[in-house]
Amino acid sequence: MSNAAAVKPRYIAGSISPIGPDRHPMSQPQPLLPPDIKRISISIEISDYTRAGVDEAIGERYWQCVDELIKQGAQSITLAGFPIASQMGRPRVLELLKETAARTGVIADAHSEATIAAMRHMGMQRIAIASRWSPELNEKLVEYLKAAGFEVLTVTGVGQWAKQAFSMSIEEGVKLAFQLAREAMKKAPDADGLLLPGGAWRSLAAVPILEDDFGIPVITNPVAQAWRLIAAGIAPPVQGWGRLLATP
To answer: What is the mean pLDDT of the segment spanning 91-117?
Structure first.
């Protein structure tokens, strides 16, 4: 038994992930939370990030995932995946989170809303987006952020849908994160913040380097999810992985 498994959890954070380990057998990400904060995840097994794929996954499996997380003791539930939220649109996401909280009595969140809160916390308003998504997903992403009051100066893209996103190696993902971040900042040098949406490319390693390079906050949605627990006083700040996580 590992040391982390032996620690009695004082908080259980639940996530509804796009796909499970059978379809995305990646190594574990860098732990950003202490071992007594247990993270559990249930997959919604999305077929793709198309509108039809999102509607099918949310309509047929979302509440099953919620119920399973509650059975496992989740004290918060986060809908992971910015593409899922983007296809849904912000009003629909906010309504779903409101209903989830009312039905379960626990905190309901989404990667998209955690990211918005994190960007506001860091004073970001005019942002550049280093995205690898398809034009359709990028359009929906920009609409979501504009609905939250942000000005999007530029957005990159390499045409990815779910299949391409989840087939990348960690090395490919990190390389692409640097490439697209620098492309975005070249197009929008006056941006006051940089967003790297998506969790599959494991862009955490790029965050502190890009912040040093450009002198502005860099946000990813997995980092924003961890920061939510820091902001709530549940987890301590984390040094060395960017400005947001170091915020007390």
So the answer is: 98
Whole-Å CA distances, 145 to 82, 116, 195, 213:
11, 8, 11, 24
Average the pLDDT over 50-64 and give the result. Answer: 96
pTM for this model (two decimals): 0.91
Please report, as a single letter, which amino acid is at residue 92. Answer: R
For the chain, which domains are there?
Answer: 3-111+225-239 (3.40.50.12500), 114-221 (3.40.50.12500)
- Cross-strand bridge partners of residue 38: 12
pLDDT for residue 194: 98
Q: Please report which residue ranges of the chain form alpha helices under DSSP H.
A: 3-6, 51-71, 82-88, 90-104, 111-121, 135-147, 162-166, 170-187, 206-214, 221-231, 243-246
Contact 173, 27 (CB under 8 A): no
CB contact at 8 A, 133 and 198: yes
In degrees to the nearest 10, what's the CA dihedral of 232, 125, 212, 188? 150
